[in-house]
Structure formats: structure tokens, C-alpha cells
Amino acid sequence: MSLSGWITIAVFFLCVVALTRPLGGFLKRVLEGERHLPGRMLGPLERGIYRLAGVEPTREQSWSQYALAVILFKVFCFIAVYALLRLQGVLPFNPGGLGAVAPDLAYNTAISFLTNTNWQSYSGETTLSPLSQMLALTVQNFVSAAAGIAIAAAIMRGFVRRSATTIGNFWADLVRVTLYVLLPACVLLTLFFVLEGVPQTLWSSVSAFTLEGRHQTIALGPVASQEAIKMLGTNGGGFFNTNSAHPFENPNALTNFVQMLCIFALGAGLTNMFGRMIGQEKQGWAIFSAMAALFLIGAGVLYWSEAHANPLFASLGLDGTLGNMEGKETRFGVAASALFATVTTDASCGAVNAMHESFLPLGGMVPLINMMLGEVIFGGVGSGLYGFLLFALIAVFMAGLMVGRTPEYLGKKIEAREIKMTMLAVLCLPLVMLGFTALAVVIPAGTSALSATGPHGFTEALYAYTSAAANNGSAFAGLTANSFWNVTLGIGMMIGRFFVIIPALAIAGSMAAKKVAAPTPGTFPTDNGLFIALVAGVIVIVGGLTFLPALALGPIVEHLAMLHGTTY
Amino acid sequence: MVLSQLRPALVLFLLLSALTGLAYPLGMTALANLLLPEKATGSLINAKGRVIGSSLIGQDFTAPRYFRGRPSATMGPDPRDASKTIAMPYNAAASLASNAGPTSKALLDQVTARTAQLRAENPDAMAQGWRIPVELVTSSASGLDPDISPDAALFQIARVAKARGLSPDRVRHLVQSQTEAPILGFLGEPHVNVLALNQALDRLGQ
């Protein structure tokens, strides 16, 4: 571990803190239809879109109408992506002459991108044409992120409003986030990435004659525009197979730093937007602090782990100063790789700049735990905040049980219906993660896809279903997904998305209808250190109790085996 | 209720697709090629009228007179049977990592073999007491890593200087001039671009 590594982590964290307030203010203005700079320039476009689509932005929806609108929109997304991939061979913009994508892979990819997961069972450069990358995938990167933020805004309205029946208009939220937040930011980010060397071209490859006289075919494409939304929308689906480790996706340490900031920026901003909507920014900072504590612990542990060379190499007499460099890039080194891995799994991004499968066992366990906790540490855009609010409800519920009072959050009573819905969402994820893993490690269709044996093979399976259900998309990428995996991972991604969104919107609907009680001396305050510690504790304990046995079978056993000198 | 939402769902999907899936990437492609044509097309290096590579993408170096890059796990089609794939280091058409786990026996065997090979190829450095930098025997994440650490370059000086009939000091000076420091003093690791270093070596010889 080096001083510059710790400085990188500290400076990164300070930048996130600095971005939180301005972004929170901006997001609130956009989603509440207030005045803002991009609105003055693109306002006519927004109104034109509403006219064509027959949308009345001021006509609000109940929680069930809002949920229905989300689902209908996702149905169209699925049909379009599936069709574009299946018809790839006959569609234009396909200079490489790539054929149709197989049915199970097209299904898996469509679900993966519409749920903001971006699990990739394919290699981008050898499977997808520029048209598929742009019209099928880039579109989903935008709209799945915009839908996530829209849903978070609707849920915030539910927590804030009093005796209300509606929580906003999904169509207006979707259009505003896309037009005013994601697109302008991505235009600037694309130009920055191109300036640093990320390609943006319609050529799909170029042929080179190397210094030693060999032919080298170099894959190219419209990379920068996809890179921008991939990070900002916490999508994570790479243009190339090796994602942000590829020098064309992430050419230097500065682009790497900016990419990490993009992953956290909107998720952090949403905590502040929530505080502003309540009228107490301190409530937002309390959420931010609980998230920040869990983030810093993860980053520290992962950096510590990867700063060691693999102990199995000890007898070879190598200079291991640089740490565990298998599956890492020289320009980033272990500090920026460890930080990136923490950030990408705290949020539901899933982009990688180093191969998580090649981390030392305890290092690889950190991304796994981050995802198991539900990706509520800043989290995916939108999904992080509403996922966190579910844990906040559990925390106040537990606090209420301890002192024998009806639990309240932000002055609203938390009753049986809210807790039932919360538990539905919180229990669905482990069911998918552990259930499918158990199935996959006992049937041949499951085990035949694993690249490793022993505890590492088990972790590979566990990581895949955890990543899918948490809508992350990163992988222990030695796994070669076959149709069994494509189908079950697709189911996992859908359950992970919609069995959180729908209960969370239902909670928002019932919260919106409640009255607000004035705080009394007996009210449990939710903006102080006690609450922060309690909710962080709930997140860790719920995750810890549920997953500890599985972690013991995977990374923990592997760590002990490694120290003992065992290989598989 | 469902029917009244169908029109907005379909129309918004089509409009947002056109905006984010066509107008945005194509507009950015046009703008990028207008403002930064060389970078937008992959930072290609031209020499004697043809493309010799990209300054961002590593190349496979095996000759003793060139600095080696890191091991690469990329694969490519077998020239004798296109349905099979074989090891093809630095195949920039299909980036790939080893994805070997830390307790993989295959990884340990590979690292052991690479260590033995580097020892045999660099007897002078071994005699000077060098320990082989770990990144020279472990494969990169992209399989296309263009860089090595300054130590990994200095380790190879004796071999390269001997193969080229140059003085080691002259080669060391070249490595130092090609070393890039961390951005702002802390972001990233110090590194040397192997292709740029080898090109500079070739120019030195002329």
C-alpha cells in the first residue's frame, strides 16, 4: 500500500462530497419541473415530445398507474432489443458482417440492459454491430437509468407528500431525466473521453503491421458515447469484452478517476435531493454518511487485500511490490483497481477495470458483499436510494420495537403494510442469489460452465447470480454462460429489478396517503449518528446473517486454502 | 387504463430511441471527428505510409532487441482450423483476461514457466541481483496493456543493450525519458509505454 493510493481514495471521496449538493439541487429542479439552464435551451423539445406522445405532464399518476407505466415501457424495450439482436444480420451499420444473436443470448441481453444490469454473456467486439451497440444497447443505457431516477423521485414524493393520492407522472419524469440530466452530461463526457483517447468512429476495426512485423487487427467503434452513459447511468456494459480495463475504454488514470466519479455522482446527488424535498438537507446527509461509512470500509479492505502479491508465488523469488497484478492494468495499479471495484459494486454499475475473478479471495469477497447488501451504498442511479430507504424503514421499525413505540420515519407512521412490502423486497434478492446458486452447483448444465473447481468455482456461480439479482452486471468472468445460465440469470435479473421496484412504489403510494405527525420528545430522530449507525448495522447484519454460510463455502475457504498452499 | 398508456409508452420509446440511439452517438461521432480526428479514430501511429499500431494498444514483442510487455491472455482463430481458438497474444480484435483465480493450479504453473523463461533470457540482470517484477509474469486485464512499470523496463536493459550493441547507460537514459509519472503526482502508477519505448530504440539505432 502506498501513500498515493490512500490519497487517491481520499481525494475521490472528497470529490463525491463536493458534487453531492450541487447535483442534488439540480436533480430536484429537473424532477419537480422547476426552472434550470438545460430547460431553457431544450424546453421546446420537451413540449414537442409530450405533444407527439399525448402526455399531459401535470396529470399525475397513483402508485399503481406509475408502476404500470414503467412495466409497459419495459415491455417495449424488451421487444425492441430482442428484435434488433435477432435481426442483426440483415440490418445496416454492420461493417463486420456479424450474424444474428442466438435466441437465449438475445433474451439474456435484452433483460440485462432493460434492468440496468448489463450482464454480458458475449464479447462486444466479436458479437455486436455498431447499430446494435447504439440502437439496442445505448438506448437502454439511457432509459433504464432515467427510469431508475424517475422511480426514485416518485418514491421520494411518496415519503414527502401528505394525504396525497398521486406520486408524479412517469412519462414526464422519464423525459426530463433523459433530456436535462443524462444527455447534456454525456455530450460533455464523450468529448472529454475522446480528448483523452477513447475512439468515436463508425469504423469497426483497422489493420496494423506491428514493429515486429505481425498483423494486428484493432477493434474500434463509437466507444466514447457509450462509455459516457455506461458510467453515468451505472449501467456498466462495456463496448469491448474487457470493459474499462481495455485501453480504448479507459486510456489513463484520469479517465479512470472520472469514470469512478460518474458512477457515484447521481446516486450521491439523489441523497441530497431527498433531503431537499423533505426540507431538511440533514436527513439527506444522514443517508449519505451511512453509505459513505460502508464505502470507505470496503475500499480499505479491498486495497489492503490486493496490495499483496499472491502468496503462492512466494517460492519464485519475484519482486511483488506492485501487489496482485494478475488481471490488472499497469497504468492503474492496485489502488485505482481496488477503488474502482468497490465503487462499481457499491453502485449497481458493474463496469470493471480489473478482473474480479483474479482478486485474492478476500479481495474478491468485497465486491460480492457489496452486491449482497443490495447495492445501497450510493447504489445504482435511483435504485440505490430506494433500496436504502427500505433498510431505513427496517431500522426505524427495529428501533420502534426496542422502545415499544409505533415506528415513524419523517413523521409518518410505519405500519404492517409497509413492513410487509419491505420484507418482500429484502427477501427476494437472497432467495434468487442463493437459490439459483444452489441449483447451478449441483446440475451438470450449471457446473459445465464454470472455469474453476473447488471453492473458487463455487464463488464463480455465487458471484454470477448475486450480480444478476442485484442488477450489477460484473462477473467472475471465467464463466462461459450457456443457455441454462442465460435463462436463469435473465430470470434473476428480472426478479431483482421488479420485485424491488413494485413493492417500493407500493410503499410510496401508502406513505403518500399518510398524515405527518409533529415530532415529540419520544420521536426517534433520523438525522443523527445513532440512526446512521443503526441503519448501517441493519444493512450489514441482514446481509451478514443471510450470506455468511455461502461466503464461508466460497472465498473464506479459498483464503484458508491459499494460505495453506493448496491449488485447484 | 392499459390502453391509455400504450400510446405514450410506444411513442416515447421510439422518440427516445431516435434521440439517444441515433442522434446522440452519430452526432458525437461527427463532432469528435471534426474536432479530434486522430483520437476519435484510435490514436493510430503511421510510419512509412502504413499503420503500425495504436499508441494506446500494446503489441506482442518477443525479440531480445525489444522490451517485452506483459503476458497477454488473448486468443485468436487457429490458422489451420478456424473453428478452434489458440493463444494469440495482444489480439486487439478480441480483448480477454485469463480470469484465473488466485488458487488456480494452471495460473501457478504459467507464472512458474514465465519466471523460468525470463530468468533464462536475462542472465545479466539475474547476475546483477534483480528480482523479476511481478507484472512481467502475470497477465493483464485487457490482454492489451500497453505499459510496464519502470522497474520492469530497467530489468530488461542489460538484455536489450547487448542485443543492440548499445551501452546500458544509453538505454537506461531512454527508459527514464519515456517514463510517465502519475497524473498530478498521485493518480495511477508510474509506467512506460512499451511500443513508444521500442520505437524510440529503433530511432536510436538509425
Automatic annotation (TrEMBL), chain A:
Q: Does the keyword Methyltransferase apply?
A: no
Q: Where are the transmembrane segments?
A: 6-27, 66-85, 134-156, 177-195, 257-274, 286-305, 384-403, 424-445, 484-508, 529-553
Q: What keywords is this UniProt entry annotated with?
A: Cell membrane, Ion transport, Membrane, Potassium, Potassium transport, Transmembrane, Transmembrane helix, Transport
What organism is this sequence from? Asaia siamensis
Described function? Part of the high-affinity ATP-driven potassium transport (or Kdp) system, which catalyzes the hydrolysis of ATP coupled with the electrogenic transport of potassium into the cytoplasm. This subunit binds the extracellular potassium ions and delivers the ions to the membrane domain of KdpB through an intramembrane tunnel.
The coding gene here is kdpA
Q: Where in the cell is it found?
A: Cell membrane
Which HAMAP family does this one have? Answer: KdpA
Q: What is this protein called?
A: Potassium-transporting ATPase potassium-binding subunit
| Family according to the record | Belongs to the KdpA family.
Q: What is the membrane topology here?
A: Multi-pass membrane protein
Subunit text: The system is composed of three essential subunits: KdpA, KdpB and KdpC.
Q: Which domain of life is it from?
A: Bacteria
UniProtKB/TrEMBL annotation, chain B:
Q: Any idea what job this protein has?
A: Part of the high-affinity ATP-driven potassium transport (or Kdp) system, which catalyzes the hydrolysis of ATP coupled with the electrogenic transport of potassium into the cytoplasm. This subunit acts as a catalytic chaperone that increases the ATP-binding affinity of the ATP-hydrolyzing subunit KdpB by the formation of a transient KdpB/KdpC/ATP ternary complex.
What family does the Swiss-Prot or TrEMBL record give for this protein?
Belongs to the KdpC family.
User: Where does the protein principally reside?
Assistant: membrane
Superkingdom of origin: Bacteria
What membrane topology is annotated for this entry? Answer: Single-pass membrane protein
Q: Does the keyword Hydrolase apply?
A: no
Quaternary assembly: The system is composed of three essential subunits: KdpA, KdpB and KdpC.
Identify the InterPro entries for this entry: KdpC (IPR003820)
List localization entries: Cell membrane
Ranges annotated as spanning the membrane: none
Coiled coil region boundaries:
none
Official protein name in the record: Potassium-transporting ATPase KdpC subunit
HAMAP family for this protein: KdpC (MF_00276)
Native species of this protein? Asaia siamensis
- What does the UniProt keyword field contain? ATP-binding, Cell membrane, Ion transport, Membrane, Nucleotide-binding, Potassium, Potassium transport, Transmembrane, Transmembrane helix, Transport
Q: Which Pfam families match?
A: KdpC
